[in-house]
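Practice problem: predict the structure.
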Amino acid sequence: MLEKNIGHSFANRGILHQALCHSSHSGAKASYERLEFLGDRVLGVLLAHYFYAAFPNDDEGALSLRLHGEARMSTLADVARSLSLADYIQSQTGLDIASNDGVMADVVESIMAAIYLDAGLDAARAFLERHWPLNCHAVSRHEKDPKSCLQEWSLQRGLGLPKYRQVSKDGPDHAPQMTYEVKIEGYDAISATAGSRKTAEQTAAATLLKQLQERLRRS
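Answer:
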């Protein structure tokens, strides 16, 4: 039933089993964590290629924001729930897997890696195109933008407001390339370059937020 939901029949059932095995499971020889690491990269490549082809007029910053929207934890968790993955994850008895967005997101990425290793990049792309929305705008009207999300994350943890500063500005006035960085107390600064201050700051915020969320998921 799960393979039918996913849309892929595995030649190697062992790798599917690993992709669904949480580290808390007592009988686990290998959890999904290594697969999740690979799946994150496979997903990034596929999303980058999709948006690069679909939006030829977007600059790097706008493409990064589109990718962020499709790779954020909540999107991955929604995909996991649409596939009912919580019903198949092996974990410690009593662990509330279904309501944990971090675990749900990790398992989707591990499934992506498992499909990639089982049948290659085209099969992973088919999984992506079948189950992801792939219609997000650079910043959706229905959700907070990355700067707002990062600010909320930082304030909730008593770290103060994120600080932005211009690192450099190159190129002619009609086609500038601006680099801005964002810094949160206790964490390394992240920078991004785009054709406008707004896009550069949003891209830097999105990148830092993703890193912080990944660190939180693994802690």
